[in-house]
Design goal:
Strand content of chain B: 25-35%
Low-confidence stretches of chain B: none
Shape of chain A: globular
Structural class of chain B: alpha+beta
Distance between the termini of chain A: 72 Å
Order of helices and strands of chain B: HHEEEEEEEHHHEEEEHHEEH
Number of helices of chain B: 8
Helix content of chain A: 25-40%
Low-confidence stretches of chain A: none
Number of strands of chain B: 13
Largest sheet of chain B: 8 strands, antiparallel
Number of strands of chain A: 10
Number of helices of chain A: 7
Distance between the termini of chain B: 59 Å
Shape of chain B: globular
Radius of gyration of chain A: 18 Å
Strand content of chain A: 15-25%
Oligomer: heterodimer
Structural class of chain A: alpha+beta
Radius of gyration of chain B: 19 Å
Largest sheet of chain A: 5 strands, antiparallel
Strand order of the largest sheet of chain A: 8-1-2-9-10
Order of helices and strands of chain A: HEEEEHHEEEEHHEHEH
């Protein structure tokens, strides 16, 4: 019989956290910005089909960095949670707060109980009728949850990217402005000033989709040409 | 939420909301209930739905009445719903079950879209609805049948298409027009005379409203236009741009002109 070496709980948790942090640090960043037109979600992602940003429910979106298979399974679980809840109660009873706390519990359980922690970081965003009603939650691999104000930055170079976003963020930015700020921030460690429209994946949670598009679903994925057009409006 | 550990989820993975409910929350499904023996008391029934195609799309209309035996259970009920951006469904039969099946079908389509990142094909949607109606067969045998009518715009073929169902979930593609519910025989007779190829969208709406008027004329369970309460049929059109509800004031004008032309003609029918 092999002898188990004693590892202190502090050491165990620290090792797990370091492992997860390393995995996340390899990934490209994601920026979520609350602006006057809604909430813009922008990720550096050259793939047009493997998304880092997704729709969860009418007013709720999801963004993630880290291992694709892990955050994709969390995204699908989130869609199932939201749809079951909305079907059994009512559509307006599905809130980002509820979803975020379920995510926090799941991530926390995996962090302590499973073989390896999830190497992911998530953002859950809910758009309100006014900017004061917006909710942005940031969830980390160990299940900790933070209620952020204005914007969330996650991923490899989160701190540097966040600095750029913090420098340019104003509450009254419009969608194009938020998008421009995001691509500028995502290019922090690059040679260029801003990422081109084709290298980013972007989506928006519209503040009033009912009047604008006649749909209660606020989530709208921006096509590459729309992104390029919005970015070009700079002049 | 499911246990999110990856291995467990992979075996749980399904794009179907109904399958997910069957596994984790079967009590939430409107069908699959074991009913005890005995007589089911009178419950509201939804009645006539008509649907017809026109170049570039398809439309569906339903009257506003639900009946419970000889009593009018509701004058305001709506029986035509958007299923998703490019399809609509109308329901006849047991109203309580039908409304829940509609809600479930709407979530089913949206759920697939969110999980897969793409819309189901129109045939895929029609088949899903058929499976749901088959799931309701045990209830139908107790007298709680739900018969839908499904219409949508097929984006790959670029045409509007119509599907009818029987109580066993059998799916039949209909050409030109179709109707279901207690007043459907009368509505169908009217549609045979009023429908013609190359109707414009506005003409098609008028044809649907007139067919419902004829159904209400002869079927006591179908409600006609009600100028006292300002109640008009619910009409949805579906074309390349998506599903759209025809505004009330347009329907009021159409219903008004139908009543007027019938009064002017001064005939028995």
């Amino acid at each position: 019989m092999t002898q188990q070496f004693y590892v202190s709980p502090e050491q165990l948790m620290k090792d797990r956290a370091d492992f997860a942090r390393k995995g996340i640090a390899r990934g490209r960043s994601v920026v979520v910005i609350s602006c006057a037109d809604g909430i813009a979600l922008v990720a550096e992602n050259p793939s047009p089909s493997l998304h880092k940003i997704g729709e969860i429910y009418d007013k709720i979106a999801f963004a993630a960095v880290g291992k694709y298979n892990e955050f994709e399974s969390l995204r699908q679980a989130g869609v199932r949670y939201a749809d079951v809840r909305g079907y059994s109660y009512d559509r307006e009873d599905v809130t980002a707060r509820g979803l975020a706390s379920v995510y926090a519990q799941s991530l926390g359980a995996v962090f302590t109980a499973e073989q390896k922690p999830f190497e992911v970081e998530l953002a859950v965003a809910e758009v309100g009728h006014t900017q004061a009603g917006d909710h942005l939650y940031r969830l980390t691999f160990d299940g900790s949850i933070a209620d952020e104000n204005g914007f969330v930055v996650m991923g490899g170079l989160a701190e540097q990217v966040a600095e750029t976003v913090a420098g340019g963020w104003k509450a009254d930015l419009n969608l194009a402005g938020a998008l421009r700020l995001a691509v500028k921030a995502l290019a922090t460690d690059k040679e260029v000033d801003a990422l081109p429209g084709t290298a980013v994946e972007a989506a928006v949670l519209d503040r009033s989709p009912e009047s604008g598009r006649g749909s209660r679903r606020a989530f709208r994925r921006l096509r590459a040409d729309e992104i390029t057009q919005l970015l070009a409006g700079e002049a | 939420m499911q246990d999110p550990s990856a291995g467990h989820l992979a075996t749980q993975a399904t794009s179907s909301f109904i399958e997910h409910l069957q596994r984790s929350r079967p009590e939430l499904l409107p069908f699959n209930q074991a009913l005890p023996a005995g007589q089911i008391p009178l419950v509201p029934h939804a009645t006539t739905i008509v649907a017809l195609s026109y170049p570039g799309g398809v439309l569906m209309a339903g009257d506003r009445r639900a009946t419970m035996g000889n009593v009018i259970a509701s004058r305001h009920i709506e029986k035509v719903f958007p299923a998703d951006e490019y399809s609509v469904l109308g329901i006849a039969g047991t109203a309580g079950l039908a409304i829940d099946i509609t809600r479930l079908f709407q979530v089913e389509l949206e759920h697939y879209e969110k999980i897969e990142g793409t819309l189901l094909s129109l045939d895929g949607k029609a088949n899903r609805l058929g499976a749901m109606i088959r799931g309701n067969l045990p209830m139908a045998m107790q007298g709680l049948a739900v018969i839908p009518l499904f219409a949508g715009f097929d984006q790959s073929a670029g045409v509007g298409r119509l599907f009818s169902y029987d109580v066993t979930g059998g799916r039949y593609e209909e050409l030109e027009h179709h109707s279901v519910g207690s007043g459907s025989v009368f509505a169908r007779g009217a549609l045979k005379k009023l429908w013609r190829p190359n109707l414009t969208e506005d003409e098609a709406v008028a044809v649907a409203v007139e067919a419902l008027y004829d159904a209400a004329d002869d079927d006591s369970a179908t409600g006609g236009p009600d100028p006292v309460r300002q109640l008009w049929p619910v009409v949805y059109t579906v074309n390349r741009a998506g599903a759209r509800r025809v505004p009330e004031r347009e329907l009021a004008a159409i219903a008004g002109s139908i009543v007027e032309s019938r009064a002017v003609a001064g005939r028995e029918a």
